[in-house]
Amino acid sequence: MKPVTVTTTDPPATADASFQCGTPGNNGWCRGGANLVFTANEPVSGYVISAIETNLWGYICQPNTASPTCTYAPGDGTGTVAFWAESTYGDSSTQASVAWKVDTTAPVLTPSVPAPDGQNGWFVTSPQVSASGSDATSGLASVQYQVDGGTWQSGETVNLSTDGVHTVVFKAEDVAGNTTTSQRVTVKIDTTAPTLTPSMPEPNGDDDWFVTAPVQIGASAEDATSGVASVECRIDGGAWQTPPVNVTSDGEHVVECEATDNAGNSTSWRKTVEVDTTAPALTASAPSPDGSEGWYV
To answer: Which of 98, 119, 212, 288 is most buried as measured by Cβ atoms within 10 A of its Cβ?
Structure first.
């Protein structure tokens, strides 16, 4: 029912309320233990407060005592509620109001990492990692990130450019001061191709020719970040093989070797190997002798 005013010489009933917070937050918000505490008083002996009523939630309590205290726990949100006390005397207190601001819920934070453009979860270019936050009640105040245990920085986006395995941690805070559980992502970057080192003997003939066979070509590789995945060589466009490979036949042969790391970066090497193990054919000629018995005179 609505407040009722009764003309009387007796003092009227009174009502009051306060917003009480167990865990105060920022900017006037309550982060936990929020209560609206209503009090009332019927000053005339023999009469009691029959109810404390609000415009939003109806009756808060029906105490039937002269000086009751009633508590109501509002949920997350903000607002103002009007209230009054009703007395068995037949009147009501003057209508009053009390406001509240409650946010007990941390913001939502969602990190985002693009799909790796290399192999085995590695990036072979510099990726951009981001996080988006939202808060339905007090609103989002900030998003911060930390790279590899460094200093916290404000922002929702971080560009990673150095090779290695990086840990990026995001956190968000709402206007009330609630913070998210940190969100952690791991980003693997290897933009550097492996180092490929071929090996072969020095030519043992003239003009860079080999005059013996086989000619053995080896290759090894190193990769400081993602590690070496494979080293292979082939001769004259044939099948790739694990080195060493042998050039066994005469002629000019193209030897190719390639090293690939676990991220998919590769380095290649190409060499023409010339082999001639066959001596030239030699034909001698002389004129017929002009003397007797094979003598030249």
So the answer is: 98
